[in-house]
Amino acid sequence: MKKILSTVMVIGVLVSGERMACAQHTDVQFSYVDGKIDVAPPTGATDLVFESNFPTFGIEQQFATLPGLASEAVEGLGIGADDQIFYDVLDDLLYWDGTDLTTPPENYLIRVRNNPSSVPDTIIDENSGQQLGSEDPLQNRIGAADGTGDFHVDLSWFLEPNPFPLSSPPEDFGAFGVKLRLSTDAAGIAKSDPLIFAFNFGLNNTGFEQAVEAFGGLLAPGLAGDFDDDDDVDGHDFLLWQRGLSPDPLSAEDLSDWQSNYGTINPPPQQSVSTIPEPETVLLCLLGFVLLFGSKPRLQSLSH
């Protein structure tokens, strides 16, 4: 019954005679292509921005289970039998206030109920930062394929606090975004490119379309050497490479990319070059670790 209600409310509600913007039930379709999780864009779109909706009132207020995530043989997809799928949260909670991308309203967060329910909830707010999925300990787990490789799982998303404060002005309606990527415990399969789940919260169709376009602009190709996808190339990226914690198998060429782009920020900051710290000293120190401790350890599959 809950699933039926959720689907109906995502199709649309009427508020003051105006139909609110909403998302159709479109799953995130993915498969393994050339050793990587490949995510298909939504129908008719080019950016990997997937639309959903947090109803502003009613039994499903501030709750969503869509979009689902699917890789089904009947659709010509499917993954490995019993493969587990996880997600990495790549950024703080994103927010479109109807005019600009900005920080979300104070104290607002999205809580994700993972599968099974014994996996800790994932909290995404304006300061939560990157949160990687893993098998040990279990974090950000979506679910597992069946014995034939079919996968179709929904997560539960909650916008909090709930209920929406009645004293808050209408300006607090907007769109919330979560930037993430998919991963698996299957050996030799790299993580997906970043994608964004966009949740409408009270905007009309035009306003939500603008939000989706703005979120899409955040999915521009990343920097070479930015192994943690946080839009800069810094010491943390090197440590991921050195410790074998990067999302994908890396090579000497990847280290060269890191060396070439160390200190680069994307997009460029709105400040003079003189305000950016000189990177040479840190760069030399970090490279010294390679000489001292040798090459990075062999990357291990999550299944080991």
Structural class: alpha+beta
* Topology as a string of helices (H) and strands (E): HEEEEEEEEEEEEEEEEEEHHHH
Total beta-strand segments: 18
**Strand percentage, roughly?**
15-25%
Poorly predicted segments: 1-25, 268-278, 296-304
Radius of gyration: 20 Å
For the residues shown, what is the average pLDDT? 79
Biggest sheet descriptor: 6 strands, mixed
Distance between the termini: 39 Å
Integer count of domains: 2
Global outline: globular
Number of helices: 5
Helices and strands in order:
Blueprint: H1 2-11, E1 14-15, E2 18-19, E3 28-33, E4 36-39, E5 49-53, E6 63-64, E7 69-71, E8 84-89, E9 94-96, E10 109-113, E11 122-124, E12 134-135, E13 138-139, E14 141-144, E15 151-153, E16 156-160, E17 174-184, E18 195-201, H2 205-216, H3 235-243, H4 252-261, H5 280-293
Parallel strand pairs: 3-7, 5-18
Antiparallel strand pairs: 1-2, 3-4, 6-16, 7-15, 8-14, 8-17, 9-17, 10-11, 10-16, 12-13, 17-18
Helix pairs in contact: 3-5
Please explain how this structure is put together.
The protein has two domains: 2-219, no CATH class; 235-293, no CATH class. Strands 5, 8, 9, 14, 17 and 18 form a six-stranded mixed beta sheet that branches. A four-stranded mixed beta sheet has the order 4-3-7-15, with no helix packed on it. The protein has a four-stranded antiparallel beta sheet with strand order 6-16-10-11, with no helix packed on it. Helix 3 runs parallel beside helix 5. The protein has 304 residues and is of the alpha+beta class. The chain has helices at residues 2-11, 205-216, 235-243, 252-261, 280-293; strands at residues 14-15, 18-19, 28-33, 36-39, 49-53, 63-64, 69-71, 84-89, 94-96, 109-113, 122-124, 134-135, 138-139, 141-144, 151-153, 156-160, 174-184, 195-201. The two termini are 39 Å apart.
